[in-house]
Fold:
Amino acid sequence: MGCFGFLKVMMFAFNGIIFLAGAAILGVGIWVKVDSGSILGFLKGIKDAPAEMNQILNVGYLLIAVGAVLLIIGFLGCCGAMKENRCMLLLFFVIVLVVFIAEVAGAVVILVFKPLAGELIEKLGTKVVQNIKKDYGENSDVTALWNATMDTLKCCGFYNYTDFTDSPFEKSTHLYPQQCCHSAVFSSCNDTIATVTGCFPKFKQLIDENTIVIVAVALGIAALEILAMVVSMTLYCIIGSKSG
Structure:
């Protein structure tokens, strides 16, 4: 098959995976925008939420955009390699290079504005707790969403069980949600045994425990992007020398 043929097959397989990943992300983005019962819908319902949180509500559009870009990249890479089209290969190289630069810039921004993210989460936490105290046990949508979240993540409230203190549920039952206690007996879930960790600390712990994996994945993606640019430019030059 030769070196040229091997590069073509590798380029086709790699971009086929990118194309499928783009389709999956695009599907998730569309689902997020269509699903009114998602966590984004819950964030919209939080009164007096920090203005910055409005940006999170656009995550569906972001996923759609990312999915569409990956679809285009995958298409250009596959067709450019198989049809030996230099224009497609060059366009593929440029797009991947722009994405790579944007990722590096994004990483720098995240590191620089990390303290600001902490302040934003603190503001969000305050509003979420206020929302729990006002609506949990009275608003069926809020109650169902929190129950589902706590069941899935095995956590209790945003910070801990005290988030439910003075909520309609706690006032009427003088108890805390069953998810806040390790005991399976609902009637025994009071403040003395409500020891289950809050959802935010649980989520933060999950990220901290998987920091190495996250960094490794990010570095792996960066390495694949560099490899894709090298292969596409190599094919571009080989095809150019053949046609010349």
Summary: The longest helix spans residues 2-34. DSSP finds nine helices and no strands in the chain. The mean pLDDT is 81. The CA atoms of residues 53 and 116 lie 13 Å apart.
